[in-house]
Amino acid sequence: MPSFLMLGFLMLAVFLVAQAAITVNCGKNSVSVRWVDVDSQVDPSLLRLGDCPPTQLSVKSQGSEAVFDAEFWACNIRRQVTTNEIIYEAEITSPTLSKATPIYYPVACAYERPEDWVPPLYDPLLFHTHGQGDLAFRIALMKDDFSGVATTTTFSLGSTIPIAASVAQQNHQPLILLIDECLASTTPELGPDSHVYPLITNNGCLVDSKNTNSRFLPRKQLSEIRLSLQAFKFAIGEEVYLHCRLVAWDPSDLDGSKKSCQYDRISSRWVLTDDPSQSSLCSCCDTNCQGRKKREILADSTALNSVIGPLVIKN
């Protein structure tokens, strides 16, 4: 049993969705879901648990079966922490088909929360999920093509450091995810005397893009953001931590304090990565960026400070 998590109970339940029988088996660090359907119009290979396809498939004349085996950090499984419980949740879904009712079945595993529980130490090779209200932020180092989580935390000087972040939202209106600030430091905690290298400052300005190939990548959806950093000279050979502040915000209300900007060295100007026609919002990146008006942050957004690392950059 992990020291940071006491297993409250092992949930084993069978439900019916249409003609399907679903078995959910919650383990210590993972969940197994078995979908058995004797009469279905849905191809079981199209089913998803979170964003993961089945790990096992069987299609026979007497029916079809799909099995999902997923660790709690994978498949876009969300972690919610309450006063008494730690809950891991996702959904089984299917694509919307013209003549079939789309499938949506919630899966959840709940465990008793110990009084002394704290989040586990960050593992830079895994997506790490932080709950904030009814939002779940996730951030991790990725492979070069963003096909999965990175398998190494060592980078050569000048190489690419791919980072992906996302926010899962339940009861909010659609929100855009921004990286408000990101600093490299040799310590896992920032203090007045910390030695830092600025990457993103001034409320979303990728200052590292002025002199390197660091850049934001095109979004696939508003709730996700991808960042490609060029491995820097700062603290070569030492352990480095990236301190990043994630902000979920109303996408219709971007301003100087809520934006995602990078420097275009060809045109010698700052560009709003999500909508270049509004690049005037980035004109403050070389001075001091402020919003149009003072807001209470919790009224319009939720923010979270996250740490990635340690990683090492070598010559």
From TrEMBL:
Lineage of origin: Eukaryota, Metazoa, Chordata, Craniata, Vertebrata
Domain ZP: 25-268
UniProt-recorded name of the protein: Zona pellucida glycoprotein 3f, tandem duplicate 1
Keywords attached to this entry: Disulfide bond, Signal
Database matches in InterPro entries: ZP-C (IPR055355), ZP-C_dom (IPR042235), ZP_dom (IPR001507)
Gene Ontology cellular-component terms listed: extracellular matrix
Domain of life: Eukaryota
GO molecular function annotations of the record: acrosin binding
UniProt-listed Gene3D superfamilies: Zona pellucida, ZP-C domain (2.60.40.4100), Zona pellucida, ZP-N domain (2.60.40.3210)
Signal peptide boundaries: 1-20
Pfam families, per database record: Zona_pellucida
Gene Ontology biological process terms, A to Z: binding of sperm to zona pellucida; egg coat formation; positive regulation of acrosome reaction
Record PANTHER family: SI:CH211-14A17.6-RELATED, ZONA PELLUCIDA SPERM-BINDING PROTEIN 3
Organism, scientific name: Carassius auratus (Goldfish)
